[in-house]
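C-alpha cells incoming
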C-alpha cells in the first residue's frame, strides 16, 4: 500500500523499549540508540511528535490489579511517562536535536504544559515535541494519548514502534503459526480485538483518518526504512481489505 507523502508524524514508543536488555527502568545507552533513529527520521525533513509509554517504570492497570485505586495508579503511570520523556529529551539533545517536553499534568519546573499552538510553533522551528502524561486523566492509556495528539497536531500518520514487526492474528511470541498482516482495516482490528492499540485509540485514528503503522523499533534503521515505504510493517487503514 502506498501512503501519501508525510510531512508530520507522531511516533509512539512503548515504555518497555527504553529498558533495552534490562528488566526494568531506563537503559541510557539504548535510549541514545533510539534517539539516533529519531534524529535520522527528522533529517529527512519530517516534523516529529513523540509519545512514550511508562510500562518500563510503572503501569497503572498492573497497580490496580494488585489492589491500588485505579485512578491513583494511572496518575503514577503518567508520572512514569514524564520520566521517560525527559530521558529521551536528554538523549536527543546530546545529539544536537532541539526538543520540548509538554506534559498533560502540569509540572512547570521540568516541562511545559500541553499547549497546541505552542507545540505547532516548536515543530515549525524544527524542534521535536515530546508529549507526556497521556491525556492527563485516568482510565486512558498512552495509546489514547498518542491518538489524541496525532489528531490534535494534524499528523499524517501514527507510527507505533514496538518489540514486534507488525500486527498478528495472535501473539507471535506464544504462537509460532501466528499470521502477520501487511495491511488491516480499523474495523477488523476492533472486531477481532487485535492487540495493536486499545480500542479508543484505534477508533480515534479511524474517525480522523490517521493511518497507524506498526513496526519493530528494536531493529536498527527500521524507522527510516518504514518512513521510506520499505521495511517490515503493518499499516492499519480504512483502505485495507
Amino acid at each position: 500500500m502506498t501512503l501519501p507523502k508525510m510531512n508530520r508524524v507522531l511516533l509512539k514508543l512503548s515504555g518497555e523499549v527504553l529498558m533495552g536488555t534490562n528488566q526494568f527502568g531506563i537503559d541510557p545507552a539504548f535510549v541514545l540508540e533510539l534517539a539516533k533513529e529519531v534524529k535520522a527520521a527528522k533529517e529527512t525533513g519530517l516534523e516529529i511528535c513523540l509519545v512514550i509509554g511508562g510500562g518500563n517504570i510503572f503501569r497503572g492497570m498492573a497497580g490496580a490489579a494488585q489492589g491500588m485505586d485505579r485512578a491513583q495508579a494511572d496518575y503514577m503511570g503518567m508520572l512514569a511517562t514524564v520520566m521517560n520523556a525527559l530521558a529521551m529529551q536528554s538523549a536527543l539533545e546530546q545529539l544536537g536535536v532541539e526538543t520540548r517536553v509538554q506534559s498533560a499534568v502540569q509540572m512547570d519546573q521540568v516541562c511545559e504544559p500541553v499547549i497546541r499552538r505552542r507545540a505547532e510553533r516548536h515543530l515549525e522551528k524544527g524542534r521535536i515535541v515530546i508529549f507526556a502524561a497521556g491525556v492527563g486523566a485516568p482510565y486512558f492509556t498512552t495509546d489514547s494519548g498518542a491518538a489524541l495528539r496525532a489528531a490534535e497536531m494534524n499528523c499524517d500518520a501514527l507510527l507505533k514502534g514496538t518489540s514486534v514487526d507488525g500486527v498478528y492474528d495472535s501473539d507471535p511470541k506464544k504462537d509460532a503459526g501466528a499470521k502477520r498482516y501487511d495491511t488491516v482495516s480499523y474495523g477488523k482490528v476492533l472486531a477481532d480485538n487485535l492487540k495493536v492499540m486499545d480500542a479508543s485509540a484505534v477508533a480515534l485514528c479511524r474517525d480522523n483518518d490517521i493511518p497507524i503503522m506498526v513496526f519493530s523499533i528494536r531493529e536498527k534503521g527500521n524507522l527510516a526504512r518504514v518512513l521510506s515505504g520499505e521495511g517490515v510493517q503493518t499499516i492499519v487503514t480504512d483502505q485495507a481489505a
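note: Residues 8-236 form a domain with the Carbamate kinase fold (CATH 3.40.1160.10).
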